[in-house]
Prior knowledge:
51% of the residues lie in helices and 10% in strands. It has helices at residues 4-16, 38-48, 67-76, 90-107, 131-143, 160-163, 166-184, 191-196, 203-220, and strands at residues 31-34, 57-60, 82-85, 121-125, 148-151. It has a 3-stranded parallel beta sheet, sandwiched between helices. Strands 1-2 form a two-stranded parallel sheet.
Amino acid sequence: GFGETGKESLPFLYEFGTFPTKNMEKAPFKCYVFDNNMEYASGEFIRRVPGIRQDEIEFLSERINTPDYWTKIRTIIDDLNYVIISLGDDKTSLNAAIDLAEYAFRYRHSTNPDDNMHNFMILVRLYDPEKMDVMTIASANAVFGNCLRSFGNIEDIWSFDVISNNSINSTAERFYNSYEILASGSVGVTWMNKLKTLSQGTYKDRSKAKRQVSQTYSNCL
């Protein structure tokens, strides 16, 4: 699903996927985005986020559970690491997530010959999770390798403001500096100047800066 959640998740995955490998090279990255209204959804996204390399993103219009959808899943299942499912309706999203978990459990081949679910995670967006949903996920995880996680319950969300105390800020700064040095050999923009961008530029610039700073907090944790 490439609605609001999908459009926020893609830039996050794109930036997370650019971590350098141990050989100081850019880690291979490919993202597949499914939505049955993709022509409109992808056009609006590309206009809003023009910096993403489109050769690393494949926009697909296959509907969930159609033959074309499962044909595509079969070709990419071995290489999938993270899947985010957000279809607007909790039951529909949960069913799609469990179907995909079952498929991966049966047919996926990972780099670990003893664990075909190695490095595989499905995150499913639930807007109003019920006790039954939690029990369903727990039951599926017991069978399909503990690969399902729900997110989105407002009571479980930690905001940037909640975690930005002094000790966490120091940890985030160390993480940021280490990442910058690993990625490019030096710290191009200091952490202090990075924080200043939260109040500089256009609304779009400030929103992007807050997302990047918040991601650094998340990563260091």
